[in-house]
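Here is the promised in-class demo. Please do not try to memorize the tokens; focus on the logic of going from shape to residues.
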């Protein structure tokens, strides 16, 4: 009955049928199940391989720890958890006096993390793939068997599993989502055409009506001339009103008004940023006065625009509506605070709205305005995905309450914060799992709540795995819908508009590419790009000529001619015909010279202890050949050459001043680590990548500015909400600094007989919001997802200013952190990635900028040039043909696949402390499978011969 009740949590999915955009997303996810199934098999295959490897290497290695001799008491240092140890070899030793290393310990995480059997080994490997807590597992294995070689297992697991295989899942999902969006767009084309025709007909009728009305108005004007004398006063008033509105309209569009508003925004920012914990009363009074004055100025600006533009025209602009909302809430705040009918929390919320005034600067900064508009369009495009993500969180929160509600209570342990005891707390816990932060710790608590690492408790791990996979890898990472076709269609139009306006600011390319960063990210993540055709390999058909085949830029650069010597003299001494200069030119353009320099750079990087620059002669040769700096094409006119010169000059200076101990010399010696950068100027491919990076850095200037502006706004909100509220006494019974005096008794967890007398201290959290700088640092830490739940629960427990924490005092405050993570960590960080990817793609297309073929046509030509007929080997010998016929049949392939699966099951059948009978059976089966696979090899050698195989 309880299992049937759990299906009630699927009721929120009924909302999907009422939202067409959600149907598109759901259809794309459902249709991606088939290709996703193949990727899932690949992931499962990889996890199984590494699980069997871990089973063979680390079986029964995680159950030894340090015990006090003759007792069952685990010996640990204070505030440290038990860890594995080794009785022999290079593992961890028991260094506490009177202790010994012996078996009997369940293992790390209450016996959940180990490689004793295939099931737990797969769970441990999957946790490592998610990159959560994998370093702890690595260190535990090092403690158990030594640190010489386990790092190879874990680093390859992370590289292959986390960085490669999981991205294949994202590529499949993004591709299916793009196809579904295109289908939905095609279905809506006909409806748009009908609406356009209807609008044209309505516009035609409206224009005819206006023309007729103008004719009638002219007739009435001619008939009413005799009555004009009666209304001269009203006409004069209307005339003056029109004149004043024209003057006001000119003023609000002038540069003087523009700089006036910018100055007000700057002063408003300054007034908000000066707020901090324990500020003086005079500063508080100044901030209140400044807020009232600035509010009146912004209200004056709003009324001037309303009068100059008229109410209908004023409210057409979204920025004007935004201004009206901010000013209205500011006026309401003053009224409610003056009347004293608002709570402290309500006042803080209203004051936070003041920060929205900072966004006024985007209206007057054209490049930022374009960027913000593009960001808003992107937000609209992912709104349906955010709604689906919310439904997903709600469903799994309700299911978690059904399965784990009220069960996270463990004896002799404090109650964990991430629980499913209430709906708000379940929402927070599910969102934490979606971010991937400490999701494994919540899973451990869930397993222990249902009986520990035995059946059926271990089955609850399926809930957390599905939640992490579906939420983190499908919904969260699918928040980048493909808008490539739409944006490419508008690209030329936007370019023309920007050139016509002559807008100053970020490069036009940066402004245009903001909206299409999502499609480029998905193209990069697509595991099957259009260029990867079948038969695309490094082995070329010798019958196909090489000349018409397009070559990449790196290949073209290898065959470039040497840069000629400039006509000007070098160092005012060596002319163009000087023999020594010609010799230097031949040396520096020789391939062996470049390779030797790269070798010296490598040796210099490895042996930085050698305090002399290696081979400074190359600079003498290059400066002699091309000149120093004065004429075009000289050595110092190239930024990469300047980098080389800087590195060697630093080495020379540090060597010449070796006996000195001043800080400048120390800084110069530190700069020697720049030596590896000299390889950039030698390796052409690396140089191209670095150039792309610099171009990308130039284009993300406004993205950085908007991100910093948002971070500043959230930091100001955090100061409003949490300043002085993260203080706590080491004695949790004391709530104020005045009472946090003297000494108290500290009992050890789960051991009331062990106590310690400690001094009470009133301490603040390392991450806090006491001022704007601390707030921005705390938010930056949150944006990396590292340890953000700890800061979240500090905020939830926060009380009044300079008061101690109260458990779950303000659960609703978690909305602040969730919005920040979605907006900054999920959305803005993907924009950074998108900009870099777009820049790399543009730079990669530069080699084809003069080509008349587009990308798809070039790929077709490349495929046609590289296509080769399939070769099928059929032996002529009748006996060999019989063997060939057998090994190429589908039945033989099915048989071998079955044998591989059975062999995998045999390898996974092993477990810790297995009986001698199981060990003997496993060895016999392995021998049998080895013989069968050897027979397969012999048959294929007979059928295909060694050369064909």
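The designed amino acids, position by position:
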């Amino acid at each position: 009955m309880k299992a049937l009740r759990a299906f009630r949590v699927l009721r929120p999915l009924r909302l999907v049928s009422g939202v067409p955009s959600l149907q598109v997303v759901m259809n794309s996810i459902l249709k991606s199940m088939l290709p996703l199934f193949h990727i899932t098999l690949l992931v499962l295959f990889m996890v199984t391989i590494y699980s069997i490897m871990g089973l063979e290497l680390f079986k029964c290695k995680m159950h030894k720890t340090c015990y006090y001799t003759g007792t069952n008491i685990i010996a640990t240092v204070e505030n440290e958890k038990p860890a594995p140890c080794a009785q022999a070899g290079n593992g961890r030793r028991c260094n506490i006096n009177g202790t010994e290393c012996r078996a009997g310990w369940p293992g790390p995480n209450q016996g959940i993390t180990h490689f004793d059997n295939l099931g737990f080994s797969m769970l441990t490997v999957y946790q490592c793939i998610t990159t959560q807590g994998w370093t702890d597992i690595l260190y535990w294995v090092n403690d158990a068997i030594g640190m010489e070689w386990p790092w190879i297992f874990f680093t390859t697991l992370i590289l292959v599993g986390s960085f490669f295989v999981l991205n294949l899942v994202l590529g499949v999902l993004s591709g299916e989502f793009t196809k579904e969006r295109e289908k939905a767009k095609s279905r809506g084309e006909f409806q748009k055409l009908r609406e356009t025709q209807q609008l044209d007909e309505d516009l035609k009728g409206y224009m005819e009506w206006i023309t007729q009305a103008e004719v009638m108005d002219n007739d009435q004007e001619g008939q009413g001339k005799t009555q004009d004398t009666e209304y001269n006063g009203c006409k004069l008033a209307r005339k003056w009103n029109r004149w004043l509105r024209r003057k006001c309209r000119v003023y609000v569009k002038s540069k003087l008004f523009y700089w006036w508003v910018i100055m007000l925004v700057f002063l408003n920012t300054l007034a908000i940023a000066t707020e901090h914990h324990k500020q003086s009363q005079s500063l508080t009074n100044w901030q209140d006065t400044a807020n009232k004055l600035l509010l009146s100025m912004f209200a004056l600006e709003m009324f001037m625009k309303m009068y100059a533009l008229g109410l209908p025209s004023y409210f057409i602009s979204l920025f004007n509506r935004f201004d009206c909302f901010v000013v209205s809430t500011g006026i309401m705040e003053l009224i409610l605070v003056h009347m004293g009918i608002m709570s402290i929390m309500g006042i803080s919320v209203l004051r936070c709205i003041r920060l929205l005034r900072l966004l006024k600067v985007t209206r007057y900064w054209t490049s930022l305005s374009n960027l913000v508009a593009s960001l808003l369009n992107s937000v609209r495009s992912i709104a349906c995905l955010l709604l689906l993500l919310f439904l997903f969180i709600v469903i799994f929160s309700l299911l978690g309450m059904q399965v784990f509600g009220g069960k996270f209570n463990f004896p002799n342990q404090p109650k964990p914060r991430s629980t499913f005891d209430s709906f708000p707390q379940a929402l927070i816990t599910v969102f934490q799992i979606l971010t991937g932060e400490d999701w494994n710790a919540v899973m451990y608590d869930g397993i222990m709540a249902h009986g520990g690492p035995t059946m059926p408790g271990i089955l609850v791990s399926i809930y957390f795995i599905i939640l992490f996979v579906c939420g983190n890898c499908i919904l969260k990472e699918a928040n980048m819908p493909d808008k490539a076709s739409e944006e490419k269609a508008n690209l030329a139009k936007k370019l023309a508009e920007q050139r016509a306006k002559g807008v100053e600011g970020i490069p036009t390319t940066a402004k245009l590419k903001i909206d299409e960063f999502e499609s480029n990210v998905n193209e990069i993540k697509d595991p099957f790009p259009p260029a990867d055709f079948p038969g695309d390999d490094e082995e070329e058909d010798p019958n196909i000529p090489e000349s018409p085949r397009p070559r990449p830029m790196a290949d073209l650069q290898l065959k470039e001619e040497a840069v000629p010597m400039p006509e000007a003299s070098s160092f005012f001494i060596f002319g163009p015909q000087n023999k020594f200069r010609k010799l230097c030119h031949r040396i520096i353009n020789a391939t062996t010279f470049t390779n030797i320099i790269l070798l010296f750079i490598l040796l210099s990087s490895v042996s930085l202890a050698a305090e002399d620059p290696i081979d400074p002669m190359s600079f003498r040769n290059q400066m002699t050949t091309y000149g120093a700096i004065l004429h075009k094409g000289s050595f110092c006119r190239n930024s990469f050459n300047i980098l080389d010169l800087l590195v060697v000059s630093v080495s020379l200076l540090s060597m010449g001043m070796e006996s000195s101990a001043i800080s400048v010399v120390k800084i110069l010696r530190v700069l020697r680590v720049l030596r590896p950068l000299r390889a950039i100027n030698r390796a052409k491919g690396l140089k191209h990548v670095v150039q792309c990076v610099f171009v990308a850095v130039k284009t993300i200037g406004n993205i950085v500015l908007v991100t910093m502006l948002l971070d500043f706004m959230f930091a100001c909100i955090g100061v409003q909400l949490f300043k002085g509220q993260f203080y706590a006494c080491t004695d949790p019974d004391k709530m104020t600094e005045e009472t946090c005096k003297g000494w108290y008794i500290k009992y050890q967890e789960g051991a009331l007989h062990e106590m310690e007398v400690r001094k009470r201290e009133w301490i603040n959290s390392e991450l806090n919001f006491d001022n704007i700088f601390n707030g921005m640092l705390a938010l930056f830490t949150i944006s990396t997802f590292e340890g953000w739940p700890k800061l979240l629960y500090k905020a939830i427990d926060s009380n009044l200013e300079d008061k101690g924490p109260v458990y779950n005092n303000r659960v609703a405050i978690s909305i602040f952190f969730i919005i920040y993570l979605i907006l900054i960590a999920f959305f803005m960080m993907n924009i950074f990635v998108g900009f870099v990817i777009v820049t790399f793609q543009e730079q990669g297309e530069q080699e084809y900028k003069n080509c008349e073929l587009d990308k798809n046509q070039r790929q077709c030509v490349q495929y046609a040039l590289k296509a080769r007929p399939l070769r099928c080997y059929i032996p002529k010998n009748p006996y060999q043909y019989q063997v060939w016929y057998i090994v190429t049949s589908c039945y033989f392939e099915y048989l071998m696949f079955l044998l591989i699966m059975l062999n995998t099951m045999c390898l996974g059948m092993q477990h810790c402390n297995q009986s001698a009978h199981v060990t003997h059976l496993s060895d016999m089966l392995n021998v049998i499978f080895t013989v069968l696979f050897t027979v397969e090899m012999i048959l294929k050698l007979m059928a295909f011969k060694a050369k064909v195989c």
